[in-house]
Design goal:
Elements lengths: L1 E6 L4 H11 L4 E6 L9 H4 L24 E4 L6 H10 L3 E4 L9 H8 L6 H6 L1 E2 L2 H9 L3 E3 L3 H16 L7 E7 L14 H4 L4 E2 L7 H9 L9 E7 L6 E8 L6 H11 L6 E3 L17 E6 L10 E8 L3 H15 L16
Parallel strand pairs: 1-2, 1-3, 3-4, 4-6, 5-6, 7-9, 11-12
Antiparallel strand pairs: 7-10, 8-9, 10-13, 12-13
The structure holds NADP nicotinamide-adenine-dinucleotide phosphate (NAP).
Length: about 350
Amino acid sequence: MIKVGIVGGTGYTGVELLRLLATHSDVELTAITSRKEDGMPVSEMFPSLRGRVDIAFSSPDKARLTECDVVFFATPHGVAMAQAAELLAAGVKVIDLAADFRLQDIASFEKWYKMPHGCPDLLKEAAYGLVELNRDAIRSAKIVGNPGCYPTTMQLGFAPLLKAGVIDAGHLIADCKSGVSGAGRKAEVATLFSEAGDNFKAYGVSGHRHSPETLERLSLLTKEKVGLIFTPHLTPMIRGMHSTLYARLTKEIDNAALQKLFEDAYANEPFVDVMPFGSHPETRSTRASNMLRIALHRPTENGTAGDTVIVLVVQDNLVKGASGQAVQCMNLMFGLSETTGLLHVPVLP
Ligand SMILES: NC(=O)c1ccc[n+]([C@@H]2O[C@H](COP(=O)([O-])OP(=O)(O)OC[C@H]3O[C@@H](n4cnc5c(N)ncnc54)[C@H](OP(=O)(O)O)[C@@H]3O)[C@@H](O)[C@H]2O)c1
């Protein structure tokens, strides 16, 4: 059994890791930290886990993380990079759900996250945890930077088009919406029910941390210079993410060939569903599952002469956008079948 520790077990991605790992056949949960809830049984805070998780939170200094085989950091940025060296030295693998090991460009990390990078040498060894685009590196990695939720949708949506060289890489547009759990469980006025409920707004329009991450990774897929306009929105759902991606086609390609690009790219991917051309995927078709769904459109009646491709991408921000993706990485890192513990059917209605 793989001994698993979770730092930050009281947050939304932490409890989602607990939900997924509680039924994972090859995992034993051995340590779960909380600075505030030291000693509280996990099932007392999360009754959904009664009978499934029978350990208690412990403060990070008491948790015996070096005795684990892998530690997930479901914490804000800055936490994993302070502890990664000690864990790696003890032979423990690290999967960080925050941004400490996502961006290879340290100057960019420091600009967007407003802190010095604590372990640039380890960063060089880290694998970016988007399995569909980086499987081999993850398999042999000791440290993984799990992708951001929006960047997962943008990369999987644009990748087949960029790799095929059929779009103008310099003018990509991503119009993305996230459920409120994307902001985490900490108390904030903007995510109060009476602020976020029955309301809809954009945020971070002039600049968002997920832009540099997405640009860095998309740039690996094409020789062209990538340009991205990314507009995130907060939508009054608990879970779910819907990204509408736009790109201008630069090559003659018919709809069937466009569709085939995506079907071929994801033919063997258990967690990417390419829906029939012209479909309208719904966030609820992925709720509580690790599935991400994609559908293509190409409007012709709007004066664009059909030279714009629209890619709709939906996922559950807490699963494929965070904790499910992290478990998918863990499975690879430990030589397990990639789908172990992740084959939940989405919850509907
Ligand atoms: N929510 C999403 O949809 C989503 C998607 C992708 C990635 N992420 C990323 O995943 C990470 C966790 O997100 P979240 O939404 O789960 O956040 P959250 O709900 O705010 O939870 C944060 C957790 O980290 C712990 N924590 C905070 N500061 C800590 C510190 N200095 N040392 C140790 N533990 C600390 C907190 O527990 P205590 O205060 O009890 O210690 C809590 O359990 C973030 O980096 C986020 O950007 C989130």
